C-alpha cells in the first residue's frame, strides 16, 4: 500500500524528505517546549529548589535571590516559553499549509493525467464505459486520494514523529511516568 501511495506521488517524491525534515524539526521544538514546562513549574512553586538545581542561572538574578529578581526570572522564562510555543504554532500552521498545497497540487496533476489518458483512449473503448465513470474517477477518486489518503498519511507521519520524540524524552527523564502512561493507554485501549 505504501509503495502504491509513493508511486502516485510521482515526481513529488523528492519533496517527501523535506517534509520529513520539517516534521522532525517541529517535534524537536515540541520536545524542547514540553521539557521546559516542568522546570518552569518548579520555579513557580519552589524557587529555592529550582535555583539549587539550576545554579548556573544566577546570571539572570543579578547575583541576589530577592523576591523581585525571582519574579523577573519567572516573567523572562514565561515569555521565552510563550514565544517558543508561538513559534511552534506558526511553524505547525506553515507545515500544514505546505501539506495542503502539496496534496492539492498532486490531486490536480492526477486529474490532468486522467483527463489526458481518457482523451487518448480509442473511441470504441471510450464508448464502452459510461461517461459518469470517467467523471467519477477524475473528480471523486482523485479528491479522495489527495485529500483523504495523502493528506492523512502526511499528518500521521508528522504526529507519529512528535509522539516518538515525546516518548523518548519521557523515557530519559522519568521511566516510571512512561510505564504508568503506557499502562493507562493499554488499559483504556482494552476497555474500549
Protein model, in words:
- It is a single chain.
- This protein has helices at 2-8, 16-45, 47-53, 58-61, 67-119, 123-128, 131-173, 175-191.
- It has 192 residues and is an all-alpha fold.
- The radius of gyration is 26 Å and the shape is elongated.
- 9% of the residues are buried.
- α7 (131-173) packs antiparallel against α8.
What portion of residues belong to β-strands?
under 5%
N- to C-terminal distance? 28 Å
Helix tally equals: 8
Helix percent reads over 70%
Attribute tags:
0% strand, mainly alpha, 192 residues, 8 helices, elongated
Summarize the structure.
This protein is mainly alpha-helical.
Chart the SSEs and their pairings.
Layout: H1 2-8, H2 16-45, H3 47-53, H4 58-61, H5 67-119, H6 123-128, H7 131-173, H8 175-191
